[in-house]
Amino acid sequence: MSLFGGDPAEVERNLDEWVAGFEQKAARYQELQHEVDDVRISATSPNGAVTVTIDASGVLVDAKFTDRVLNTSPDELGRQLLIAVGQAKAKIAGRVREVAEQVVGEEAGGRITGYYEQKFGAAPEQQPPPRRHDDDDEGYGSVYR
Questions:
Q1: How far is Cα 73 from Cα 79, in angstroms, rounded to an integer?
Q2: Is residue 110 part of a domain?
Q3: Considering the domain boundaries, does residue 55 fall inside one?
Q4: pTM of structure
Q5: b (16+ CB within 10 A) / e for 34-56
Q6: Is 136 part of any domain?
Q7: How many domains does the chain have?
Q8: Residue 70 is part of which domain span?
Q9: The pLDDT value given to residue 48
Q10: How far apart are CA 108 and CA 101, in angstroms?
């Protein structure tokens, strides 16, 4: 498509299409901003005492405590809170990727997600549970299991 060559009517038509394309992209990116602003991610501490909710900026927007706080020391409760916040933050990039790919497509969504991966890290892949090693099986596993 040549914007500035040929018939003036064609140039005007091409310029209108070009501007319309930019306006559509701008509208999609504005929609994406609204969708990302609405992202909320929750995580629960390992001992179940606290569940936190953060936004896509990593800001804590809610914390709910269960009766388990009654059996948790203040220091441990603080540690559990920080663990839950860290778990939630680790999910931000993945959730933003989902939203971005739905709104602006996979390629653009991947580029946008890079910022969140740099800031919060990529979502950790699920690791299998550690294998139990008995002292007497030398790592080969027991024949009695």
A1: 10
A2: yes
A3: yes
A4: 0.69
A5: ebbeebebebbbebebbbbbbbb
A6: no
A7: 1
A8: 39-120
A9: 96
A10: 7
Q: Stretch 22-26: mean pLDDT, rounded?
A: 88
Identify whether 67 is part of a domain: yes
Q: What is the pLDDT of residues 92-145, one digit of tens each?
A: 999 999 999 999 888 888 888 888 898 888 755 544 444 444 545 455 555 554
What would the pLDDT profile of 27-68 be if each residue is shown by its tens digit?
988 999 999 999 999 999 999 999 999 999 999 999 999 999
3-state SS, the chain, equals CCCCCCCHHHHHHHHHHHHHHHHHHHHHHHHHHHHHHCCEEEEECCCCCEEEEEECCCCEEEEEECHHHHHCCHHHHHHHHHHHHHHHHCCHHHHHHHHHHHHHCHHHHHHHHHHHHHHHCCCCCCCCCCCCCCCCCCCCCCCCC
